[in-house]
């Protein structure tokens, strides 16, 4: 069974097909019983200018080479995870989470400042 969550934060409209979204952002796809956890992709958020009305795929697995957006890497590296697709109602600059541990995906909530993120090994910045 697929569940759909509609979340409004300011002018953002988020839609996501998922079963679980918890503190460690353990996301279980409704198609899988996997408990794959996301990889910390960066120890900082990404400042991005987004267009209104355009749908964006935020990488939730941490394996994308196009952070903070999805490039499909989850299909091979984290098959239990899928991107969070969201649309802004109007153009704006936002800070998207790079550590994949936020409680307010896809937006940064400052979790990257915690020791478990800062002490984690992350790939070299591209």
List the helices and strands and how they pair.
Blueprint: E1 4-9, E2 12-17, E3 46-50, E4 55-58, H1 74-77, E5 84-88, E6 92-96, H2 115-118
Antiparallel strand pairs: 1-2, 2-5, 3-6, 4-5
Domain Iron-binding zinc finger CDGSH type: 43-80, 81-118
Keywords: 2Fe-2S, Iron, Iron-sulfur, Metal-binding
Protein name: CDGSH iron-sulfur domain-containing protein 3
Features:
126 residues; mainly beta; four-stranded antiparallel beta sheet; two-stranded antiparallel ribbon; 2 helices; globular; disordered N terminus
Written overview of the protein:
This protein is mainly β and 126 residues long. Helix content is 6%, strand content 25%. The strands form 2 sheets. It has a 4-stranded antiparallel beta sheet with strand order 1-2-5-4, with no helix packed on it. Strand 1 and strand 2 form a beta hairpin. The N and C termini lie far apart (38 Å). The model is unreliable at 1-33 (pLDDT under 50).
Range of strand content: 15-25%
Mean pLDDT across all residues, rounded?
Answer: 78
Helical fraction: under 10%
Major sheet size, sense and barrel closure: 4 strands, antiparallel
Per the principal axes of the C-alpha atoms, what is the gross shape? globular
Q: Please tally the helical runs, counting DSSP H or I stretches of 4 or more residues.
A: 2
Instruction: Give the CA-CA distance, first to last residue.
Output: 38 Å
Low-confidence stretches: 1-33
Domain Iron-binding zinc finger CDGSH type: 43-80, 81-118
Keywords: 2Fe-2S, Iron, Iron-sulfur, Metal-binding
Cofactor: [2Fe-2S] cluster
Organism: Huso huso
């Amino acid at each position: 069974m697929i569940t759909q969550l509609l979340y409004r934060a300011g002018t953002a409209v988020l839609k996501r097909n998922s079963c679980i979204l918890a503190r460690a952002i353990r996301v279980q796809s409704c198609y899988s019983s996997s408990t794959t956890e996301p990889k910390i992709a960066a120890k900082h958020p990404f400042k991005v200018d987004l267009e209104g009305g355009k749908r964006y795929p935020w990488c939730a697995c941490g394996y994308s080479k196009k952070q903070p957006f999805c490039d499909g890497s989850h299909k091979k590296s984290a098959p239990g995870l899928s991107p969070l697709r969201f649309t802004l109602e109007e153009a704006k600059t936002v800070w998207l989470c790079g550590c994949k541990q936020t409680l307010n995906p896809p937006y940064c909530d400052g979790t990257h400042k915690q020791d478990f993120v800062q002490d984690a090994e992350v790939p070299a910045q591209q």
